[in-house]
Amino acid sequence: MSGEIITGKKTVMTPFNVIAGMVVLMGLIITAIRFTKGLGAATNLSDYNPWGIWIGFDLLVGVALAAGGYVTSAAVYIFGMKKYHFAVRPAVLTGFLGYLFVVVALHYDLGRPWRLAYPFIVGWGTTSLLFEVGLCVALYLTVLFLEFSPAPLEWLGFKKTRYLAVRLTMVLTIFGVVLSTLHQSSLGALFLIAPSKLHPLWYSPYLPVFFFVSSIIAGLSMVMFEGMLSHRAFHDKMDEEHLSESDSLTLGFGKAASLVLAGYFTIKIIGVAAGNHWNLLTTPYGIWFLVEMIGFIALPCFLYAVGVRDKNLMLIRFTAAWTVLGIVINRLNISVIAFNWHLPASDRYFPHWMEIGISVFIVMLIILFYRFIVTRMPILYEHPDYKGEEQ
Amino acid sequence: MGISRRKFLGWIGAAGISASIGKPAGASSISQFSGFPDSKGVLHDITRCVGCRSCEDSCNKINELPEPDTLFSDQTVLAKNRRTTTKAFTVVNQYISKNASEKPVFRKIQCNHCLEPACASACFVRAFTKTPNGPVTYDPDVCVGCRYCMIACPFDIPAYEYDEPLTPRVVKCTMCAPRIEAGEIPGCVSVCPTEALTFGKRKNLLSIARERIRNNPDRYIDHVYGEYEMGGTSWLYLSGVPFHEIGMREDLGIKSGPELTSGALSIVPMIVGLWPVLLTGIYGMTKRKEKNAFIEQEGAVAAAVERANHESIKKIAAAIEKERLGKKKAMEAAEKEKEKGIK
């Protein structure tokens, strides 16, 4: 009897769960502070630095890394790579959770979050890039919800509704790509209005294109990176197809990522050339720019290519993680590190620990929701009732 | 493209102009908006400013702002590099020349009330309005608090009430819009003892500024700051020292905020219109390729089957023939045996 109780306890009190519990508790405490005492109590934001990591990381990085949803569904349904079908559901789920928590995180950053819908109710500020971002994110979140809905409907056994949802797949995929193209690029275009504040090496009229292209890289890499983590944690939940095809997906997506990275590197160079900013490359900011260009764009491009040629799955998966890190660095460079570069150090921004705390809290919530869903719904395996069905 | 331009178009004549008609005048328009005619502005002659801070004092009282940290008579704060805050719509800073023999220079900082404000074009709820009178005003009743206006402002003017949990507002100079509406002049201008500030129609101020430069070419840098910076501002500046030496950016360019983003915005409808066509096309091609591959495969299979059938028929025939021959041989052999036996 007592032995049973101990083993029962042990399954809940895993090291991960303990850490997760602590992070959630911390998040709730900071949430209380943020909403009762205001932004000033929980952040280092200032009049010079109105945007910190809640925008730079939670919004910009969050949206970029949630690009796996549209990238994978486009690959499978539009470009006809049917053998990667098994990867659509986990990618769409991550995309959905990613966007959902981008919106959740936004509530922390907005001064009056309960007015989030005002742009669409009170004043249509169509001259604002942020309006476009908001509209596209709202619509895309809906699209992702519908794309994801077959899984919970199968889980709940609502066959008719599921049938309707599945029939929408093609239309939703096309909508998803259109909306993603728009808001991924618009996130970069947000900074077009501030040429005097963003360092010239990062500022470019091509910013929207850079953001869109790098979102494809982020999407591809994130699907591989996430697949690697899922294989460790949820191996038992995966069906035959998932287990046998995931190596082929890693090779295919690795090849694609290498190719897109090569294109991205090229257009980034064109950006420097168009602005004729070569002379800035030897400044401290220039060296940091080169670190991003060589270390996080050229290097992963090369490593992906080598990994695919040698069929070295370990190398490709490592590169995927490295590339994801590169995307994080790029988005933080544009929103925080190279933004306001001209100001003296005393007026610059460094995040408050509570800002970091909320970002960690949000990431943890995504992981917990992901775990809750994949351990219950048919995400990593096909539901036996609908096996082999064309989707 | 800017709210201002749209409103301007509506204002100059086309009464009842609808939003949908107003919009095409944006990104694709070749017309140039150079400000509302007869809009007001202020000329700040930096060479005349003595750093008395009366303007700060007056601004504080008229706008009912919180008590300042130190009295307005305190001259020591001038040496600090201050900016506008939630408590101060305007501040005066002192700039000491590297050349010790030259007198220090004082500059007043406040919202420049751009002709096509970046803050207004960045706002997704249209909380900012460029009024035909000149002031750029802010409506806290619709503000969501995204602070994109602060990112957009090239002059680092808007401040935010970060410590306000429920009703945080963006705070900035209003150019005393209510007073201008009532025919009065802005508070800061009304109290300036040295006439370092002049209020009037912007176009008249530009003439005054040019005349001062013409009459005293040694006293002034030959540039009216704000005439073209960021598409032009309602506040204009004259200085005796290069503007960048007194903390004013000379690298802002002459494009207005809305112009910087209009290109990106103009591509949006193109993507909405063409992406579905492109994607459906790719889908169609993929489908067709799959279908063709299927047909080819079917054909190949059928051919293979036929070939196989053909061969097997031959084989069977051969086998039958062989058996027939075998039988014949056996029969003949048996016949022979029989004959032998009879013999």
Spell out the key features of this protein.
heterodimer; A: 391 residues; mainly alpha; 16 helices; disordered N terminus; B: 343 residues; three-stranded mixed sheet; two-stranded antiparallel sheet; 9 strands; 10% strand
General description of the model:
Chain A has helices at residues 2-12, 15-37, 39-42, 53-65, 68-78, 88-109, 118-121, 129-148, 150-156, 159-167, 169-189, 207-233, 240-275, 284-309, 313-337, 353-374. With 391 residues, chain A is mostly helical. In chain A, helix 12 (207-233) packs antiparallel against helix 13 (240-275). The longest helix of chain A has 36 residues, at 240-275. The radius of gyration of chain A is 22 Å and the shape is globular. Residues 1-9 of chain A have low confidence and may be disordered. By secondary structure, chain B is mainly alpha-helical. Helix content of chain B is 41%, strand content 10%. Chain B is built from nine helices and nine strands. A three-stranded mixed sheet of chain B has the order 8-1-9, with helices on one face. In chain B, strands 2-3 form a two-stranded antiparallel sheet. The N and C termini of chain B lie far apart (123 Å). The interface between A and B is large, with 60 and 66 residues.
